[in-house]
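We were asked to recover a plausible sequence for a given structure. The inputs and outputs are reproduced exactly as logged, with field labels preserved.

PROBLEM: sequence recovery
POSITIONS: 373
GIVEN STRUCTURE:
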């Protein structure tokens, strides 16, 4: 249903209700109380972990805000602030939790210091793909667990973007063996950083706006970010010529919009429904946008900038797999809720693997066999 149809229908319902309430009963009635002005604009401030105007990640935040504003007919007007405009990229969680801002847009694994369970609502090494995590959150009990977790911090959060499968990263030198990871300084967040440390590397936490300069200065030797579209925008190819993929650490990174729980509870139920619908719409468009734009950007990187694509060896993948399973399962030991989140996620991942093994995985192989490059 488009917005015009929705609003027209709402007007008919409202008119019918008004008519029913004003029928002449023959008795004298007191003057009606003034109607509540539902058209008055309420402004909400969204802080984000992304640079202002950044493609893909930043546009997912802006699109979420736009949808909320349009779908409420302007009754809710969401103003978007990039990282650093009100608070820093990694401070948006606390800002919304404490009521400094009304809502945030970011990646939930940035909050793993609050609870390791937040990782599961963004990405974990050898975890679920974009479609699988969307299915778990929407239908496998993930949303309910997420609300329980976020509620401990005075928040409620929803899926509002997904970058799809991310690349393994940009490296200044080739990584051919496990020994090449020793001493490697790499920007990599979340549980992927824990895997790197187990491989003997040093995981560095940097916001998006800090990465290029760190590569340029030699503060880091490698970085992962997202995929070709966003990586091209940052120009990483100028500092690190070797581009590895696929990545093991973020097979389908979910982005989130989080609201202060007091703000959420103050919204009428129809506006709450709009926020949920707007987040879903932004989530779907984000994945579609990343899928298409990554293909275009990859063509530019390899065709115009001479980027050299690489794959991690089977030896590296096997060791990464062994470490990843241990790291991911260890997150369940933090507390009982983390255990329940992990077990629910693990079960949903098994379902996704069973289906993918007879659907998408063999299809991609056959399509490549038939069509080639």
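RECOVERED SEQUENCE:
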């Amino acid at each position: 249903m488009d917005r015009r149809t929705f609003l027209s229908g709402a007007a008919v319902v409202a008119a019918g209700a008004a008519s029913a309430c004003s029928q002449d009963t023959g008795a004298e009635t007191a003057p009606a109380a003034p109607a509540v002005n539902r058209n008055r604009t309420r402004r909400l401030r969204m802080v984000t972990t992304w640079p202002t105007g950044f493609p893909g990640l930043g546009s997912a935040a802006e699109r979420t805000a736009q949808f909320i504003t349009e779908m409420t007919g302007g009754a809710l007007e969401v103003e978007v602030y990039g990282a650093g405009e009100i608070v820093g990229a990694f401070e948006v969680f606390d800002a919304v939790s404490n009521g400094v801002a009304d809502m945030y847009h970011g990646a939930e694994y940035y909050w793993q210091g609050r609870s390791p369970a937040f990782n599961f609502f963004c990405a974990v090494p050898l975890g679920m793909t974009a479609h699988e995590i969307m299915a778990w959150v929407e239908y496998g009990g993930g949303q309910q667990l997420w609300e329980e977790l976020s509620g401990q911090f005075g928040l409620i959060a929803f899926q509002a973007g997904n970058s799809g499968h991310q690349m393994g990263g940009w490296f200044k030198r080739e990584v051919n063996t496990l020994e090449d990871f020793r001493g490697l300084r790499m920007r990599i967040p979340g549980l992927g950083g824990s895997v790197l440390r187990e491989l003997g590397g040093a995981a560095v936490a940097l916001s998006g706006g800090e990465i290029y300069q760190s590569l340029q200065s030699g503060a880091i030797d490698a970085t992962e970010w997202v995929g070709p579209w966003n990586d091209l925008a940052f120009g990483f190819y100028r500092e690190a010529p070797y581009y590895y993929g696929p990545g093991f650490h973020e097979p389908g990174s979910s982005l989130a919009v989080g609201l202060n729980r007091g703000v959420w509870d103050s919204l009428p139920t129809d506006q709450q429904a709009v926020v949920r619908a707007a987040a879903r719409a932004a989530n779907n468009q984000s994945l579609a946008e990343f899928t298409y734009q990554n293909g275009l950007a990859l063509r530019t990187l390899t065709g115009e900038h001479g980027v050299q694509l690489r794959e991690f060896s089977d030896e590296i993948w096997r060791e990464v797999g062994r470490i990843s399973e241990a790291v991911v399962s260890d997150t369940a030991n933090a507390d009982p809720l983390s255990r329940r989140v992990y077990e629910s996620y693990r079960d949903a991942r098994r379902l996704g693997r069973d289906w993918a093994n007879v659907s998408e995985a063999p299809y991609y192989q056959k399509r490549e066999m038939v069509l080639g490059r």
